[in-house]
Amino acid sequence: MKALIGKITLWRAVSTIILAVGAYAAYLRFFEGWVVSTNLTDAQPWGLWVGFGTLCGVGLSAGGFCIAAAVYLLGMERYRPLLRTSILLSFLGYCSVCVGMLYELGLPWRIWHPIIYWNKHSVLFDVSLCVMCYTTVLALEFSPSLVEKAIPWKGLRRWYLKWQHRILIGLVMAGVLLSSMHQSYLGGLFLIAKGKVHPLWYSPYLTTLFYLSAIPAGMALLVMVLYLCVRSLQAKIEYSLLQDLSRIMMILLGVYAVFRALDLVRNGATHYAFMMNKEAGYFWLEIVLFLAAPLALLSWRKVRDTPLYLYWTCATVVMGFMANRLNVSITALDAMSGAQYVPKWPEIALTMAVLTAGVIAFRLAVLYLDIVPRYEEPKEFRWLASDGAVAEA
Predict the structure, then answer these.
(1) What predicted TM-score, i.e. pTM, was given to this entire model?
(2) pLDDT for 38 beyond 60
């Protein structure tokens, strides 16, 4: 009994509570229905589950195809130490999206229908098919990490790894194509809602805006995860790799900022940003978190060279990205419909439960699978320098 009590920590207790409350929320969703579990209406049919669970979940998982393309297609072997971490992060992100779709759909038992019933005129069908296919690709890309530990028969393990290696380049190319397609298609979902989306967020180029914003956000989340792996899971990672990612992020955020500004001017929507209403407030919150603050901080060398400063800068990027997706899916629709949607507690509880389950799965994978190089014995929080020496945190 004492040994069991000794294993109980604050975070384990909090995680257990979140999962338990989420399980009850799932019961309400599937057995009591939408009215009890959500505040969704005909005027606001997409809420927190779509805005956060799907739009943010897919976008923040973009780091996987970026690193895979850099290593396998462009030959940037320098980033290979980040490869399995980025693929695992993307795989868990897409798994959470697939789980989220089960409670987002009005008839979840029909989630398999896009596999058989094809509607080539539907953007939502394109998104569903791409997400299913890319999740399969990520599972195959991640499988060597699991096979190396889970299959005890050496011959079978060697055969599978050899077979997976033969199709790997094809998998990566398919992954880059599929991920690029549905990152864009998610924005295309709102193109058919012209007149129902606030002008600050509606654009005929939403597909491009969604794609341009997802890549730096995915990289920012990857940097955050790698920082936490070094700090809490004894990972050995060269800090200069994170510095490289921060420079790439700065360039990509600059490109997105220019495109976003030109798009607002072209659509004649700039004056909406200076109105005294909540939509303008949410717009500027998004701009400050996702563009202004990160661009200013990342241009400062001290921020890029200091792990803690870089971590919080990337956290700002992730928060700004989430603000953008929630603005597009909730704020922009609320403003035009007058729905005044506020998530009900089961929506929040289910979202937090899926997120918590993903974090637990990631931690277990890093601890028990060969995901990232780790110290054999516990060490203080240290980074590897480019010459292999131990650098100060």
Answers:
(1) 0.92
(2) yes
At 5, the pLDDT band (50, 70, 90 cuts) reads: low
Cross-strand pairs, 384: 238, 390
Query: Cβ distance 313 to 18 under 8 Å?
Result: no
Return all residues near 190 (Cβ < 8 A) that are at least 6 apart.
Answer: 197, 201, 202, 206, 328, 329, 332
Does an H or E element contain 391, and which? strand 390-391
Q: What is d(CA 69, CA 281) in angstroms, rounded to the nearest whole number?
A: 37
Give the model's pLDDT for residue 390.
47
Domain edges within the chain: 197-341
pLDDT in tens, 77-131: 999 999 999 999 999 999 999 998 888 887 888 888 888 888 888 888 888 888 8
At residue 257 the predicted structure's pLDDT band, cuts being 50, 70 and 90, is very high
8 A C-beta contact, residue 264 and residue 332: no
* 372: phi then psi, degrees, rounded to nearest 5: -140, 145
Partners of 390 in the β-ladder: 384
Q: How many CB atoms lie within 10 A of CB 325?
A: 26
Name the residue among 63, 60, 64 with its Cα closest to residue 326: 60
Residue 389: band (very low, low, confident or very high) from pLDDT cuts 50, 70, 90:
very low
Question: What is residue 238's DSSP assignment?
Answer: B
Using a 10 angstrom Cβ sphere, with 0-12 exposed, 13-18 middle and 19 or more buried, the burial of residue 204 is exposed
* C-beta separation of 183 from 210 below 8 A: yes
CB 169 within 8 A of CB 125: no
Task: Indicate left, alpha or beta for 195 from its phi (over 0: left) and psi (-120 to 50: alpha).
Answer: left
Q: Which of 318, 359, 344, 364 is nearest to 19 (CA)?
A: 359
Residue type, 53: G
Cβ within 8 Å of residue 94, ≥6 positions away? 57, 58, 61, 131, 134, 135, 138
Beta bridge partners of 4: none
Buried b (16+ CB within 10 A) or exposed e, 44-66: bebbbbbbbbbbbbbbbbbbbbb
Q: CA-CA distance, 379 to 360, in Å (whole number)? A: 22
